[in-house]
Amino acid sequence: MFNSKIAGIGMYVPEQVVTNNDLLQYMETSDEWIQERTGIKERRYAHRTEETTTTMAVEASRIAIERAGLQPTDIDFIVFATLSPDYYFPGCGVLLQRAMKMKEIGALDVRNQCSGFVYALSVADQFIKTGMYKNILVVGSEKHSFGLDFSTRGRNVSVIFGDGAGAVVLQPTEETGRGILSTHLHSDGESAEILAMYNPGTHANHWTNEPVADFDEAEIGEMFFSHAMVDKAQVFPNMDGQAVFKKAVVKFPEVINESLTANGLTPADINLLVPHQANLRIAQFVQQKLKLRDDQVFNNIQKYGNTTAASIPIALCEAWEAGKVKDGDVVCLAAFGSGFTWASALIKW
Ligand code: ACO
Questions:
Q1: In a shared domain, residues 168 and 139
Q2: Domain extent at residue 140
Q3: Which residues does the annotation mark as catalytic?
Q4: Of 15, 192, 293, 317, which is most buried with the most CB atoms under 10 A?
Q5: For residue 209, what pLDDT band results from cuts at 50, 70 and 90?
């Protein structure tokens, strides 16, 4: 059995910078509130019509593939994580395969929101370990700006999120004790609705206590998507921020420690923790809890906001480009988000 190593990494963020003050034209908020509660100063928004979740993924993937010394036609398999796909179906994996003119390879879409990239990495790692594939492209990409409620009603969610993409190429390594040492995946669906986008969907009010649309009066097609859903803002993400925060600060340290324990290591052995960029306050809480120094944790949420499945590969790419990830370093990736799902990956670079 081989371990997998990251042979190439790339990222892409759209050109358009949107500051906290820029958001004032849409909603009642303030730079002070956003920075104090989330650490975010600005984020990037994709071009409305010229950029999609997939086109951003293409840009990040090109760089990752080139840095791995490969061509798109060398890729054996795609794992694509996003919560903001171009289409409800088919997934972005096939659109990426088409756009990059890859061979008729398998393309798998992962729907694990903020944990999506670590889940995707774990799936790809298993395919490398079994010897099934040799060059796997793992992507996280999000175009959040297209699907947020920019009125004051949606401000608790919309100020947090930004657009972007990150990608890595995984390959087998023959060096023992190198590459992805272990991955750890978890879920607890008990609170699925507190960080969720209900519509469009097939739930027909099955899981929610409160009506999400007037289904009794709706025509069958309207149960999936209706004017009522739009009018009641049920087509936008819904979040109980405090509940998410409370669970995140427990599960982040837990899943990081799980990865360390599995490999006989302690927090002191981490050279760089790259947490999902959910909220700077969450990352700082985790840092304190694990007694990590500033140089052991990489954050860039200040510049990009929360880019969900893209946040870890974007942060890892920036850290690597800045020389903060070196050969032999112990790098921990950790995520928590909607589902709830949470996950970690420990890598010996
Ligand atoms: N600007 C100004 N005021 C706001 C804003 C805003 N953008 N959003 C909410 N408020 C107001 C509220 O209306 C409320 O006003 P009130 O006291 O008059 O009722 C007040 O601020 C406090 O609201 P809370 O929701 O209690 O604020 P809190 O301190 O919890 O901060 C936040 C909200 C930032 C969302 C926080 O709960 C948080 O970060 N939670 C974690 C969420 C998270 O990380 N989500 C992403 C991870 S999951 C994923 O990536 C898919």
A1: yes
A2: 3-173
A3: 114, 276, 306
A4: 317
A5: low
Shared domain check, 183 and 169: no
pLDDT single digits (tens) 269-315:
999 999 999 999 999 999 999 999 999 999 999 999 999 999 999 99
Instruction: Measure 240 CA to ligand 1 centroid, in angstroms.
Output: 8
Statement to judge: residues 168 and 206 lie in one domain: no
- Among 20, 156, 160, 284, the mutation site with the greatest number of ligand 1 atoms within 8 A of its Cβ is 156
Residue 243 sits in the same domain as residue 231? no
Could you report the per-residue pLDDT of 216-272, keeping only the tens digit for each?
A: 666 666 778 888 888 888 899 999 999 999 999 999 999 999 999 999 999 999 999
**What CATH number is associated with residue 315?**
3.40.47.10
State the DSSP string of 9-44. Answer: EEEE--SEEEETGGGGGTSS--HHHHHHHH---EEE
- Please count the structural domains in the chain: 3
Neighbours of 191 (CB within 10 A): 15
**Cα→Cα distances 94→30, 77, 132, Å:** 40, 11, 20
> Which protein residue's CA is at the shortest distance from atom 30 of ligand 1?
242
